[in-house]
Amino acid sequence: MPKVTVDGVELEVPAGATVLQACELAGKEIPRFCYHERLSIAGNCRMCLVEVKPGPPKPQASCALPAAEGQEIRTDSPMVKKAREGVMEFLLINHPLDCPICDQGGECDLQDQSVAYGRGASRYHEHKRAVTEKYMGPLIKTVMTRCIHCTRCVRFSEEVAGVDEIGALYRGEATQITTYLEHAAKHEMSANVIDLCPVGALTSRPYAFEARPWELKKTLSIDVSDAVGANIRIDSRGREALRILPRVNDDVNEEWLSDKGRFQVDGLTRRRLDRPWIRRDGKLVAASWDEAFAAVAKVNPGKDIAVIAGDLVDCETMFAAKALAGALGSTLLEGRQTGLSYDCSNLAAVNFNSTLSGIETADVVLIVGSQVRWEAPLVNSRLRKAAKAGAKFFVVGPEWETTFPATFLGNDLSVLDKLPKAAADALKGAERPALILGGAGLGKGALNGCLALAEKYKLIRDDWNGFNVLHMAASRMGGLMLGYAQPGGIADLVAAKPKLVLALGADEVDFTKFADSIVVYIGHHGDKGAHAADIILPAAAFSEKPGTYVNTEGRVQRADKAVFAPGDAREDWTILRALADALGVSVGFDSFDELRGAMATAVPALGHEGLADYGALPKAAKAKSEGVIEAYPIKDFYLTNPIARASETMQRCSAELLHGEEFAEAAE
Amino acid sequence: MADRHLEPDTPELRARWGNFAWTKENAAKAKEIIARYPDGRQRSAVMPLLDLAQRQVGAETNTQGWLPIPVMEYIAAQLDMPVIRVVEVASFYTMYNLVPVGRFHVQVCGTTPCMLRGSDDILAACKARGMHKGHTTDDGLWTLTEVECMGNCASAPMVQINDDNYEDLTPQRLDAVLDALAAGKTPKAGTQEPGRHTVEPLGGPTTLTEMVSANHDYRKEW
Prior knowledge:
Largest sheet of chain B: 5 strands, mixed
Distance between the termini of chain A: 55 Å
GO biological process, one term (chain B): inorganic cation transmembrane transport
Shape of chain B: globular
Oligomer: heterodimer
Strand content of chain B: 5-15%
Distance between the termini of chain B: 46 Å
Keywords (chain B): 2Fe-2S, Iron, Iron-sulfur, Metal-binding, NAD, Translocase
Radius of gyration of chain B: 21 Å
GO molecular function, one term (chain B): 2 iron, 2 sulfur cluster binding
Largest sheet of chain A: 7 strands, mixed
Number of strands of chain B: 5
Strand order of the largest sheet of chain B: 2-1-3-4-5
Number of helices of chain B: 8
Number of strands of chain A: 29
Order of helices and strands of chain B: HHHHHEHHEEEHE
Largest interface: A-B, 14 and 14 residues
Strand content of chain A: 15-25%
Catalytic activity (chain B): a quinone + NADH + 5 H(+)(in) = a quinol + NAD(+) + 4 H(+)(out)
Binding site for [2Fe-2S] cluster (chain B): 109, 114, 149, 153
Helix content of chain B: 25-40%
Structural class of chain B: alpha/beta
């Protein structure tokens, strides 16, 4: 713990801290461009210069200088001021100063820091450098003349994303940042370089020229594109959500966000259900709310009602639907739309027990039937971190392109009973062994085999729980906590032949099996569920209602309402409350607060934010693992949910990045 | 330097260089180069391999050689590293040619010492022979580049042609060198000053003269 003095204030800093971190601990702001907490240190922008004694009598780059015992650091001396002005002047020499037409304007590090630390005026009269345009795909808009060569994007793609595709070509003033041969950036977290870019060189292409940051209302929310529950901020103007940015939460998403979570936002304004529809003579016709409720009341299902929850719904909606079904006397609830039927009697067995931040510390990881890169890109970045710390990876399932060294053990699940020697030895010798079971594994009934493995290799230890199930739906853990699981999965619902099926944004269900039932679809997009519905009640998307979500590690998180739902659409719980009136039953709540209160009473863990406790893992039954994983459930990373499918950006990503279609660039 | 660029990745380029592979001798050399570095650090061999590839391309095309994209991909695959990292290295160092060059790559130093000793005349002499900066002559013989300091300031001005330096140049001496090269001869590399061997002072030493015949302790004279 070295002791240093920052501007006359003595403080102790952690061993291994840099001078920049010491200054931050002392509450001093150090301007910087290339330094980023989650990336390696480059030390090439020189903006963080400070005066350090003892040392050479010149300013030093604080980001790359280790704090040492007895250092006297000054951040307020004339030398530092002059150094910052000098560096800023050099940075601005080749910067175009086109802030009025730059999307970064208002949230630009270079802008802010040149105001705070730069000279008042320019002394530069020579020609400025110009850089030819670079193409980086449908998500990242580039204006490379603005680039100041901080190399954050290069380091991000190499270190965090694990896909080396961005590089700095040429040298000196001629340096250019580009993807290899100007191919599109092709990984699931590529757009994070937009946030990382301290200037306007890399900006969001779909959001280009949409709004200025000061016009936007910022709402804290939770991402629903996968089961990670990334913390996001929805920026909206008027009734439209314009963009989604990640928030910092070290326990969940650090400060990254998958491309789908970020850019499905334009799907929120397209293909929306904005009025009730009723199917008459095989055709859907627009109706009023009263007509729609009357149509539901006419079905009068009694206890012959089943509820299917979709992937994106919040806990409040599911609880309200459960209360409605319960009031009618039914417990036919299911959330696993595609027919999975794994045992949910003990939720610890279907939870990501290591926690998302904990999995980084694993030293041997066995992945069973999960293509982590597509199912949870943010978990994949954690696994990459573990791999960089020396973890070994073994994967059961079809091969996919990992961003870390991994050994594939084949598709046959019987391998679980008898692991190859290398994997078995690694697990035996590991201090923090972990297993990740994904959707493909669950679908083939690998849960029991994995539990047996957990016992055999002692995955659960005093301070470590290495048994993990990686879900793909934002609603999954919340749904399971609320009892949206039948022993036989959705087949039980089919077998019960309900008169009325309440589909809560359920778009992945095979509705042909419910041909004899009246399907009431409560949801926000005109997708597969709405096509199969008999009555459509338009509801709110995740950005249009407050909600509770539980991510795959059992973390209860709350999202706020950013904008109002379009047209006649209403928040889901109000629809269900009104349905209760239409069907003549009482659900026991009249306001959102009462609903939340009732939910917290029924399932206490949903009442407060943070990790839910599911207790100990169940004992594995004696059974053989068998089956072959032929494919992973996600066929197209960019089009996994109704919002993404409605999004033009995601459609284009799918066509261009996954299916190799060529798009001519509009002349600019 | 600012006008360096990669040769565009066209189907013709792929057709010409797509199946680039080491010759037998170069494959052995490449193996030997990679073996110089510890296991898992074979990336360190990227610079010598790029040089080797450039020479092989040169031998195949009877030029100084250059690095087409498929060749860089070949090296990246051999070293198990991302292609962009190879391109970064190749584009950083100016002695890797990114576009085709001629039989002789005439690199004229134009940095201050050479400039003071007459590099402008050298450049003019090159131009008089039909060379243009950054271009290859139509006969494919010469490519002219102006470069920064090559470290031969004591025998300025100088040019580097492929692997050899020619120093103490005047336009006439340069013409003699270029004529010899064009005629397929191998002119003497190094200084072109008659009577000079390396960079020793012309006409004998002017400083430390006491040291010529025997060791001399200058300290008492300070």
